[in-house]
Amino acid sequence: MSDAESLPRRRSPLVFLVPLILFAGLALVFLAGLFSGDASKVPSALIGKPAPAVALTALEGLQQDGRPVPSFSVADLAKGKATLVNVFASWCAPCRVEHPYLVAMAESPAVKQGKVAVVGMNYKDEAENARRFLGALGNPYSAVGVDRPGRAAIEWGVYGVPETFLIGPDGKIVEKHVGPLDAASAQRLLARAAALAK
Questions:
Q1: How large is the average pLDDT for residues 107-135?
Q2: Long-range CB contacts (< 8 A, 24+ apart) of 188-196?
Q3: The pLDDT value given to residue 40
Q4: Residue 71, helix vs strand vs coil
C-alpha cells in the first residue's frame, strides 16, 4: 500500500458550508413567516364552530343601573343577535388602551337597539380589581362572566388578553381579533356584527 493510499481523503470545504447554508435559509423562511401578515388575525380552529360551552360565574358585586350584571352562557350567545365577547383583565395594560372603543361600541345604535350585544369574559382576575377597573373606565358589557382559573379561555383558544370574538346569531364563532382594539378594528367588528344581526 502506498503512502498516498493510506492518507485520509481531504474533504472539500464546501461540504461544511452546506448545513450552514441550509440553516440560514430555513431561518430566513421562519423569520419572514413570523413578521408577515396581521398579528390581530390569528387563525382559529373554532371559526365557524359553536362557541365553547363553558361555565362562567357573574362578577360578584358588579352592578349597573342598580341591578346585578349577569354572567352569560353559550345559550345566551345563540339567541338571534350577534355578540362581541371581549376577554379582558384589570392587570392587562392593552385592555386599558382598548377600553374606550368598547365603551363607544356599547353606546352605538346597533347595541342600543338590541341587534348586537357586548359581553366580557374576565380572565384570571380578582373580583375587586375587575370591579374597580370597570368602575373607573366604564362598563360597556351587558354581561360579565368570570374565568378565574383560566379554563374557559383555554376552551376558547385564547392566546392572551385582550382578545375579542364575534359570535353570530346562531352562536357560532365568526371572527377572532387578537390584541387591543383600535378605532378601525372596533368599527369594523361592530359593522360586521350589525350586518350579521339583520
A1: 97
A2: 189/84, 189/164, 190/84, 190/105, 190/108, 190/110, 190/116, 192/82, 192/166, 193/82, 193/83, 193/84, 193/110, 193/115, 193/116, 193/166, 194/82, 194/110, 194/115, 194/116, 196/82, 196/166, 196/168, 196/169
A3: 44
A4: coil
Q: What is the pLDDT of residue 9?
A: 65
d(CA 129, CA 61): 11
Q: What is the pLDDT of residues 41-92, one digit of tens each?
A: 555 678 999 999 998 999 999 999 999 999 999 999 988 899 999 999 999 9
How distant, in Å, are the alpha carbons of 140, 141, 166 from that of 111?
10, 10, 14
The answer to whether 167 and 193 have CB atoms below 8 angstroms apart is: no
Residue keyed to cell 352605538 = 108
On whether the CB atoms of residues 117 and 142 are closer than 8 A, the answer is yes
pLDDT digits (tens, 9 = 90+) for 12-40: 666 666 667 777 766 666 555 555 444 44
Q: Report whether 54 contacts 147 (CB < 8 A).
A: yes
| Residues of the chain above pLDDT 70, percent | 79
Under a CB-based contact definition with an 8 Å cutoff, are residues 153 and 134 in contact?
no
C-alpha 41/C-alpha 163 separation (Å) is 10
Please calculate the CA angle 21-39-107 and round it to the nearest 5 degrees. 175
Q: Is residue 192 classed exposed, middle or buried when 0-12, 13-18 and 19+ CB atoms within 10 A define those classes?
A: middle
